[in-house]
Amino acid sequence: MPGRIQSIERAAAILRLLSGRSRRLGVAELAGELGLPKGTVHGILRTLQFVGFVEQDRESGKYQLGAALLHMGSSYLDGNELRTRALNWADALATQSGESVRIGTLHENQVLIVHHVFRPDDSRQALEVGSLVPAHATALGKALLASHRYLAAELLGGDGLMSYTPATVTDIYRLRRELDDISEHGWASEVGELYRDMASIAAPITDRRRVTVGAIGITGPIERLCEAARPRPELIGYVTTSARSVSRELGALPW
Amino acid sequence: MPGRIQSIERAAAILRLLSGRSRRLGVAELAGELGLPKGTVHGILRTLQFVGFVEQDRESGKYQLGAALLHMGSSYLDGNELRTRALNWADALATQSGESVRIGTLHENQVLIVHHVFRPDDSRQALEVGSLVPAHATALGKALLASHRYLAAELLGGDGLMSYTPATVTDIYRLRRELDDISEHGWASEVGELYRDMASIAAPITDRRRVTVGAIGITGPIERLCEAARPRPELIGYVTTSARSVSRELGALPW
DNA sequence: GGAAACGGTTCGACAATGTCAAACATCGTT
DNA sequence: AACGATGTTTGACATTGTCGAACCGTTTCC
Questions:
Q1: What is the pLDDT of residues A41-95, one digit of tens each?
Q2: Of A21, B74, B176, B236, whose CB neighbour count within 10 A is largest?
Q3: What's the distance, Cα to Cα, between the start and end of chain A in Å?
């Protein structure tokens, strides 16, 4: 029975729609989006509500994600080996570099942030764990794509690369060449490609089978991360050695 | 059709088991736990894997929660009105009190932490957003239970209250009396009842219909939060006014 | 002020759907 | 080499979820 269970797939599709930008959606909207009868969608929603995956706004009648998902998300983090193994190294990298640190994995052609350490001294920052950032405009994403070329091909084959700033790389061939460089040198960077005045540096993390399972990197204002529009060598060093340390902790053979 | 969809309920039950302490579970274990045939469980797991809700460990064959849940959990936070409205007030309370701040809601007889601000100055702390803490041994939980007596009754009717330290209140009648006091005064506290040398103070947050939708509170070492084994009055003041501010922001009538 | 349009919800008949138990494959262990 | 433990596949069965129309309550707009 190599088939999937229809109702569960549909339920997941509903949850995915609800986790999209729209936050709150009504039965009719969902039904329209999925091409299903209202009644069917309602039945699924009732069940999802019963198990706490969605909640209904008493006033508008619309549905939104439920609290149970928050707890499950955090449980996922507890069981995530990449994150637990990387915790200490991420802290160390933040201290060394003086910048905020992020660890991410590829998820649906984007980068899912699984860990985030704030800048040591800094003012309040928003925690980004759980958020998705574009792969082609972040150092984390590039580091990951460089080791997953088949996935990169899929992404690049899609409907064009979104541009976030004038510096965003949207040319497929140029990005491909950049990925080649990254594979060769073992680190990736991005300067003003996602936010105009921000830059980032990242390196891939590999597991015991030498497959890339994530990436670790730092983010900060261009003037702190770069010198003459190029990432500062000492920061690159911090990032790559951190990545190697985490890889080793995950069982990768020492380099 | 006031019925729920069986397969979705079962899928949710599987996810709940996987988010329990055990992290990784095999098909047989899950089947045993749920009293279902292995084949059935396997079909559900295959679907959940396809939609990214679970992942399978290549080596052991066991299943664990998937990355999609992390993103959904964080999407839940974005749409959570209580949290978004409380963000600034929580920061302010942390600054005022000098202690770490938590905001929680009741979820399955426990307190789900939906926001967490670290101590202003402090060393690294673990982010607790998404975790569940016991209701009867935390100030947050008591503040919530005091306004949901029917739920409190259910909790108290269960199989006894877990004891975490010698100070944990496990006597139902004593707790009930404490909840009465809390309702009357509008704030709750706990001294060494969850962790031996920690204390917490919390107050309920109400929405426009005057129903309690959450609670906000501070946590810290007893010697900082208390004076002569009683919560310091000025801290109580900070907490209660913060709670009122958030309530007002949620549309509650001004007091 | 009425009526139409839109929201979420319920209903019952139908058959497609998911379930089940047993057999299979693949490990590691005895 | 046989066992026992995994996770996995299979096919027959009837339970189960689906569907579309009808329902009820709000809001909107003549």
A1: 999 999 999 999 999 988 888 999 999 999 999 999 998 889 999 999 999 999 9
A2: B74
A3: 44
Q: Are A140 and A131 in contact (CB under 8 A)?
A: no
| CA count, 13 A, side-chain hemisphere, B110 | 13
Nearest neighbour of B79 by CB, restricted to A23, A43, A52: A23
Residue B3 φ then ψ, to 5°: -110, 160
Kindly give, in sequence order, each residue whose CB lies less than 8 Å from that of residue A171, ignoring residues fewer than 6 positions away: none
Q: Which helix (H) or strand (E) holds B104?
A: strand B100-107
Q: Which amino acid is at B63?
A: Y
DSSP A139: H
Location of structure tokens 């010198």: A227
**Residues whose C-beta lies under 7 Å from strand C:** A 1, 3, 5-8, 26-29, 38-39, 42-43, 45-46, 56, 61-62; B 1-2, 6-7, 10, 36-40, 43-44
Tokens for B25? 């579970």
pLDDT tens for B23-69 read 789 898 899 889 888 889 999 999 999 999 999 988 888 999 999 99
The answer to whether the CB atoms of B76 and A91 lie below 8 A apart is no
User: Number of C-alpha atoms within 13 angstroms, CB side, residue A142?
Assistant: 34
| Residue for token pair 């946590």 | B219
Q: Longest Cα pair distance anywhere in chain B, in angstroms? A: 61
Beta pairing partners, B188? B202
CA of B29 to C1' of D7 (A): 11
CA nearest to A118, candidates A159, A140, A145, A90: A90
Please return the burial class of A151, using the count of CB atoms within 10 Å of its CB with bins 0-12, 13-18 and 19+: middle
What would the pLDDT profile of B59-95 be if each residue is shown by its tens digit?
888 999 999 999 999 999 998 889 999 999 999 999 9
